[in-house]
Each structure stands twice: as structure tokens, then as C-alpha cells.
Amino acid sequence: MGPSAIVSLENALSGVIGARIRLQTSLPSQATMEGTLFTACPITSLVAITTTTASNTSSTHHILPISSIHSFTILSAPPASNGFTSPPNTAPPLSNVPTAALLARADAAVARLKEAASRKNKNVGKEAQDLFDGISRTLPTRWDGNSIVVMDSVVVSAPYRGEDCRAGNDVPATTLSRVRKVVSLSDDAPSNKNSNSNLGSREQVDNERKRFVDRERKVVVPAVPAIPAVHTGPRKGGHSTN
Fold it and tell me: SS3 of 104, please?
């Protein structure tokens, strides 16, 4: 049987998938086979046929080459839909992406990056930046041009010494005094780099900053005066006890 006959038989089998057929084969073990045509593959030139027992209690699948088939007979036509449906050529549905949460995370990350960039001043020297970083470890600090603003109330201008701290009239004098002390004691202060007498250890400076923060945040509760005892005497109709 030449190649053209194989192609013709293959096309014929492909048109009756799902039908019950009888095959005449060249297989010595099974010259005749009856069953339901499961598929005919043009790529591998194989067919699959399903046979059942006389009682229809079990089934067996057979795969054999088309070249071994001499002929076939249709015993019963396939169902109108061939009993088979091709799998949909579509991707599985995707779950909803929480875009709101992702956008919120992205905005928070951008805000953190912007805040980190705003804390670095490219227009000042390393010593001034070190002073800023040292103060900001314990106090709210930001740049205003080349000036350091502490707690939105005290401005430290170049050359960033204690006497360079300024504050408005509405700022308590104690706040200004303590910021000046922190700046003067800071081992990061540019004006103190060459003055060993004014230098304090890192631990001393950090402790001073912490004491300042604690004092500023401390809430003073006024003492409540004691309520004097009231003597009302014996009740009406009663007797006093000695």
C-alpha cells in the first residue's frame, strides 16, 4: 500500500472519530478489531480504538499504526457532536490584581525615597551634613536652604555653631537654649572639629539629645490641692457619739 493510500485512509478515519468501526489489520495477533475510534493522529500516523467486553463491563484501548490497517467498516455512525469537544484555545482566567494596594505600596516607597533625598543637602559640606544627621537621630530636623531647622522652631545657620541657633519670639527660651547646647556639644558640629575642649563622646551627646526630647515631650500635670474635711455634726434626730 503506497503513501497515497495511507493518506487517504488517514483522512477517512479522521472523519469518523467517535464511530463504532471494524478494522481489518495485518497484525498476526488481531486481524480483526471492533470498537469505537478514539482518535486518528496525522502526525504520528497512529489510531486509537477502544474495545469493550461482551458484557460492557470493561474497556481496552489499543494503539496501532495506520499502515497496519487494510480496511475499515463503519458499524454505527458517530454522535452528531462526535462525543468530543476540542479544548478551548484560551488562557485560564487570571485572578484580580489588587491594584489599589500595589499603588499604595508604590506611593509609600516613592515617599520614602523622596524623604531620604530631602535629608541630603548637596550644597553643604560633609561636616554640615554630619551635624544634620546627628541631630536628626533624636529630633525632627529638616533643611531650609543651607540652614538646619530643628523641631520647626529653631534654625541653625552656617557655620552651624551654638551661637548660630535662632528662634522666633514665640519659642520658649529653654527650647532654644537646649538646642544650642546639643549643637555645641555635638561631636559632629563643624566648629568643634578642631576644639578638643568642647568635644563630648558620642554617648554623652546622644544622652543629652534624649534628655532634651524627654523634657520637651513630658507633660506636667499640676498638683490637685487636698480637699479639706467638712464636719457636719450629728444628723437631725440622731445622737452624737463620744
Answer: helix
Q: How far apart are CA 211 and CA 219, in angstroms?
A: 14
Dihedral over Cα of 171, 177, 180, 186: its sign: negative
Q: Are strands 147-150 and 46-52 parallel, antiparallel or unpaired?
A: unpaired
Rounded distance between C-alpha atoms, residue 40 and residue 60, angstroms: 17
Residues 142 and 132: their CA atoms lie apart, in Å, by: 8
Which residue type, as a one-letter code, is found at position 31? A
> Which residues have a Cβ under 8 Å from the Cβ of 180 and sit 6 or more positions away?
162, 163, 165
Number of Cβ within 10 Å of residue 142's Cβ equals 15
Model confidence at 239, pLDDT cuts 50, 70, 90, reads: low
pLDDT tens figures, 32-60: 889 899 888 888 888 999 888 777 777 88
| Residue 228's pLDDT band (cuts 50, 70, 90) | low
On the question of pLDDT at 231 being above 60, the answer is no
Contacts for 52 with CB less than 8 Å, ≥ 6 apart: 35, 58, 59, 60
Residue 233 has pLDDT above 70, yes or no: no
On the 0-12 / 13-18 / 19+ scale of CB atoms within 10 A, 227 is exposed
Residue type, 43: I
Residues written for the chain: 242
144 vs 219: CA distance, rounded Å = 30
Q: How does DSSP assign 7-72, residue by residue?
A: HHHHHHHHTTTT-EEEEEE--SS-SEEEEEEEEEETTTTEEEEEEE-TTSS-EEEEEEEGGGEEEE
